């Protein structure tokens, strides 16, 4: 799949499409609304690199969605896996919220903030919140929802602790308490065991 596009930013097709020129081709790219003015001021007639996602629409043509930030591209892909979110709504969400802001909003349960997105009323915001909560993962630590990679590490460490006979809720609470981003699975299990069973020797890991 096409991952990135580098070319000269030639202009804007309102409301939120831009033209990128590469050798032999002129690409039409849909971007978040918030990018338009910044692109105009910084990249007009200059080279720009966009992280892109091609989407086939109704088996007729391909639309290309572009982002300056790689994390926004990945979130756009994830948003499109939700049953109530298509490309148009996903781009509207990313026009209002950065990935970090959206994660914090979901953690803090600010459902009404989602209604700021064009095309979302308060009732739809409530349904969208439930899907986004599942999308960002169920593990929460120190005021933020952990990344998917961190969730994988915590899940595997949790499974190991359960195999040792610890209770699910007890294991999860301790893992979230001691987890740090640089921890490997082995590091995390060792730290958790010190909390759960101080008498357990590290050599057993």
Written description of the protein model:
- By secondary structure, the chain is of the alpha+beta class.
- It folds into 3 domains: 64 residues, Beta Barrel (OB fold (Dihydrolipoamide Acetyltransferase, E2P)), CATH 2.40.50.140; 67 residues, DNA polymerase, domain 1; 59 residues, Ubiquitin-associated (UBA) domain (Helicase, Ruva Protein, domain 3, Orthogonal Bundle), CATH 1.10.8.
- 44% of the residues lie in helices and 21% in strands.
- The strands form 2 sheets. A 5-stranded antiparallel beta sheet has the order 3-2-1-4-5, with helices on one face.
- A hairpin with a 2-residue loop joins strand 6 and strand 7.
- Helix 6 crosses helix 7 and helix 7 packs across helix 8.
Could you provide a short overview of the structure?
The chain has 205 residues and is an alpha+beta fold.
């Amino acid at each position: 799949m096409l991952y990135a596009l580098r070319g000269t930013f030639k202009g804007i097709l309102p409301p939120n499409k831009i033209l990128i020129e590469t050798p032999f081709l002129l690409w039409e790219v849909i971007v978040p609304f918030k990018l338009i003015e910044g692109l105009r001021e910084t990249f007009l007639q200059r080279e720009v690199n966009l992280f892109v996602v091609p989407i086939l629409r109704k088996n007729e043509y391909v639309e290309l969605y572009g982002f300056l930030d790689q994390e926004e591209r990945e979130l756009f892909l994830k948003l499109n896996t939700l049953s109530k979110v298509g490309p148009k709504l996903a781009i509207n969400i990313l026009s209002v919220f950065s990935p970090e802001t959206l994660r914090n909003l979901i953690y803090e349960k600010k459902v009404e903030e989602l209604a700021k997105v064009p095309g979302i009323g308060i009732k739809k915001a409530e349904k969208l919140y439930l899907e986004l909560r599942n999308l960002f993962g169920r593990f929460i630590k120190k005021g933020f929802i952990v990344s998917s990679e961190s969730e994988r590490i915590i899940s595997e460490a949790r499974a190991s602790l359960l195999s040792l006979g610890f209770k699910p809720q007890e294991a999860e609470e301790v893992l979230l308490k001691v987890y740090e981003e640089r921890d490997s699975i082995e590091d995390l299990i060792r730290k958790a065991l010190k909390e759960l069973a101080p008498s357990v020797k590290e050599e057993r890991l």
